Amino acid sequence: MTDEPATPAIDVARAEVRPRLRPLDYVIRFQSILGLILVVIGGIVFSPRRHGHILFLQPDNIANIVRSISETGILALGMTFVIIAAGIDLSVGAVLGLSSVLTAALLINEGWGLWTTLPLVLVCATLFGLLQGAISVRLQVQAFIVTLAGLQAARGLALIASGNEFININYGSGPGNAPPAFAILGERLFDNTFPVATLVFLVLAVVATFFLNHTRYGRYVFAVGGNERAARLSGIPVEWVKISVYGITGLCSGVAGIVHAGQFAFGSPTDGTGYELNAIAAVVIGGTDLFGGAGTMIGTIAGAIMLGALANVLQLNDVSAAMQLLATGAIIVAAAALQTFVGRRDTRSR
Amino acid sequence: MTALLEMRRIEKRFGGIHALKGVDFDLHSGEAHVLLGENGAGKSTLMNILSGNIAPDSGDIRLSGTSAHFSGPAEAHTAGIAMIPQELDLVPGLDIAANLFLGNEERTAWGTLAHRRMHSAASELLKKAGVSLDAGRPVSSLRMGERQLVAIAKALSANARILIMDEPTAALSATEAEHLFRVVRELCARDVGVIYISHRLEEVPRVADRVTVMRDGRVAGEAKADAPQAELVRLLVGRSFEDLFPPQASRIGRELLQLEHARFDPSIERAGWQAARDVSLTVHAGEIVGLAGLMGVGRTEFLSALYGFEAKGRWSGMVLVDGKPAHLGTIAAARHAGIAYVTDDRRGTGLILKHSVGENVVLSTLRRITPWALVAPRKERRYVADALSRFDVRPKLPEALVVNLSGGNQQKVVFAKELVSEPRLLLLDEPTRGVDVGAKAEIYAQLRSLTAKGLGVLVASSELPELIGLCDRIVVMSGGRTIAEFGPRASEEEIRHASANRTEAA
Q: pLDDT tens for residues B189-216?
């Protein structure tokens, strides 16, 4: 009566004629994987060569790429949940910084052990995220604003926790030293080829994929982001889902912060600045809908790797940092435009 | 006398769909001509051709006897054809005058906007359209009916000779609609030809001189506006109205829901929200009870408060579910009590449009197909396939996106979603809005077969014939109170009388 398309007969016909995915849908669904393949091919073609070796494919270089993306990759995993639930979390980079400082401060200044420090850091980061979610839901303030405020607050807390300075992590025994086991986060496994930080990212990626695709909770996240009112009407605990996804980004930021402290052997209150934007970029390139309700974890993973590989290719070719930023920007716009193009195609005939 | 407009043998195909099969239509100046038809009958396609939005495959259009070809809406507009779409093209943030001159603003010699000149010209236009509104008011402050009138004034600003209105009363209250009809008649008196698209029978004699009924892309017939409704119904649906409805209940069970002087106090007062103030009614197992009443008497609010959806607050008075006192008011409590709810807004609250049919069907029963909180794909596939065949959703493809389904099939998906949870009481608000006749009949039959198994249904509808045909009993509401109750086969007159009388008294 009021809200129906005037030509339902045509709608039925379209649904009957075209129920399955068209080729272009596959391109969209796997756009980040295709993008990754293109970047890798480009990397090989344009890579500088030395003594007949393709530098881009050298084990050292590949290890560098996967190490460089491990932290933003971990942030992007959590961000995928939030964005599918139609939210956004701008605080992840700052919470990463806070977690790295907290780790260093507890290990060095307080002399705590790993088994007490690491769980406490993770709990704090998770609580910080949940608090932001609760404020956003209970006080009905947009997540954009709440997490923007959270970003500032986390930076402030990091400055307090660090006493406004950079904390170096020294390894050894006795006060003022961290347990040497913590140094493993900066090392490589398997004959010095595979960074431990990347291993952490991959393990979390498997866990996140499982949670999103194979649990009831994952379904709730999609439903809430797809249509919050319909989800509520269907008896889904909408508030709880909307709060909990920020707990997930918080937890991921905590892990990334610990990895950061381990990789670089220090805690710095200003580190992680701008990481949230890289994480969001990886999610968007991965094909997740910024309006919520649709997205894939594998897309995010490929998106994160692609961004790292692209930066690496440009660096190898001595492209200036300015040009690198421009290239990243262009790719984000292209990925988003590709999606809206398909969205328009779908609705155009209505 | 030559007709203002003649359309002859209009043909249009969309892919495999034959949308218009040689349609003839004409309009005289000073005439209000209703174009009546179900969704998908082709009336919007025909009018889109007339207003230049769609090119016909073949056929002639003549304006005052001269042949006309429109290659776009702008040409039709210059020829004096104006269409007021359902979604009004007004900018809420601007005032009425700015909206009327949107796109061809008048300027002063300095190149700035000539506010005063536009304001007085706008006042003139509003007067011509029979509207008494200050041209300086922002559109956002106007009620729907007033916005409709502004849209008419805007259409008239282009000196339209033919005005097409697409279901203009869909969002209007009864009084607003009455005012609109008066404006239409005034326009006719000034020799404007009005084509009025509708699917509401009761509007026809109040607004029109003549009615053309379309069905399946053809003109099913033409009639005088005062033709008996039964004849219009037969033209409209191609069979007699009574055949749409299954027989009434044979066996009524125990009381499922009993309300005695029940009252709902919302914790937050909402503007325009008619809370239930004094409701007494009973729904038995196996019974369909209808809620009748004018627009805005609180039917929708009552149902959503029963279910606890977007209405926080407390019920007082006697509220019994299954003979036991129930603390309704939250969704969890309602679902626990075996109550399911289908709102009047399936796109906004019923479905996740961008998700597939399968994902929508399982939405309210996710717990059942996720043992140990894990998704069980095989179980889910079986569950969805079973639901789709039980509720006859077409196409029977779980992976089809619901946004691509027709209104009727979307509604069946909503029903499937709510009914797979096997509720004991189903609350329905306008269950057949925007649904074609075939799907309506299927939904009615489905409801009856479910009530035969003991389901109780409480259904609100603004279409009295539907309530009378479908329900075992009809309860009339007014101002948040139940004021009268009718058994089966009450007449439309009786019910209308009951709801109108009370309104005047109140």
A: 888 899 998 877 778 888 888 999 988 8
Q: How far is it, in rounded angstroms, from Cα A73 to Cα A63? A: 15
Query: What does the DSSP 8-state code read for residue A30?
Result: T
Q: Which residues of B touch A236 (CB under 8 A)?
A: 363, 366
For chain B, state the CA radius of gyration.
25
Q: Is residue A27 part of a domain?
A: no
A9 and B CB contact within 8 Å: yes
Domains in chain B: how many in total?
Answer: 3
Are the C-beta atoms of A261 and A250 separated by less than 8 Å? Answer: no
A4 near B CB under 8 A: yes
Query: With bands split at pLDDT 50, 70 and 90, how would you rate the model's confidence at A346?
Result: very low
Domain assignment present for A294: yes
Residues B226 and B286 in one domain: no
Number of residues written out for chain B: 506
Considering only CB atoms, A15 lies closest to which of B374, B404, B433, namely B404
Q: Which of B374, B404, B422 is the last residue in one of the domains?
A: B422
Nearest Cα of chain A lies from the Cα of B113 at a distance, in angstroms, of: 35
Same-domain status, B408 and B450: no
Interface check B452 vs A, CB under 8 A: no
- Shortest distance, CA B106 to any CA of chain A (angstroms): 34
B480 sits in the region (left: phi over 0; alpha: psi -120 to 50; else beta) called left
Judged by a CB distance cut-off of 8 A, whether residue A340 touches chain B is no
In the predicted model, is pLDDT for residue A2 greater than 60?
no
Are both B320 and B330 inside the same structural domain?
A: yes
pLDDT tens string B42-85? 888 899 899 888 889 999 999 988 888 888 888 888 888 988 87
Q: Which residues of B touch A220 (CB under 8 A)?
A: 366
Question: Which residues of chain A are within 8 Å of residue B417 when distances are taken between CB atoms?
Answer: 234
B20 in the same domain as B92? yes
Residue A345 distance to chain B (closest CA, Å): 13
Distance CA B255, CA B263 (A): 19
Average pLDDT (A236-256) is: 96
Q: Could you list the residue range(s) of the whole structural domain that residue A131 is in?
A: 57-342
Q: Does B275 touch chain A (CB under 8 A)?
A: no
Q: Residue B332: which domain range?
A: 244-338+424-505
- Same domain, yes or no: B59 and B193: yes
Query: Which CATH number do you get for residue B471?
Result: 3.40.50.300
Tell me the chain A residues in contact with residue B335 when contact means C-beta distances shorter than 8 Å: 235
Q: What is the pLDDT of residues B116-175, one digit of tens each?
A: 888 888 888 888 777 778 888 888 888 777 888 888 888 877 778 899 988 887 767 667
* Contact between residue B341 and residue B427 where contact means Cβ atoms under 8 Å apart: yes
Least confident interval from A222-236, A277-291, B28-42: B28-42
Q: Which two tokens stand for residue B320?
A: 């019994």
Same-domain check for residues B361 and B471: no
Strand pairing category for B58-63 and B66-67? antiparallel
Query: Do residue B329 and residue B390 come from a single domain?
Result: no
- The answer to whether position A102 is within a domain reads yes
The answer to the question of residue B345 being in a domain is no
State which of B239, B258, B275 marks the end of a domain: B239
pLDDT of residue B505: 45
Assigned domain for B344 exists: no
Rounded distance between C-alpha atoms, residue B331 and residue B306, angstroms: 9
CA-CA distance, B216 to B135, in Å (whole number)? 43
Placement of tokens 């009381």 in the chain: B255
Of the candidates B44, B332, B353, the beta carbon closest to that of A6 is on: B44
Pick from A194, A240, A248, A176: nearest CA to A67:
A194
On chain A, the residues whose CB falls within 8 A of the CB of B349 are 227, 229-230, 233
How many domains are there within chain A?
1
User: Both B401 and B463 in a single domain?
Assistant: no
| Interchain pair A234, B400: CB under 8 A | no
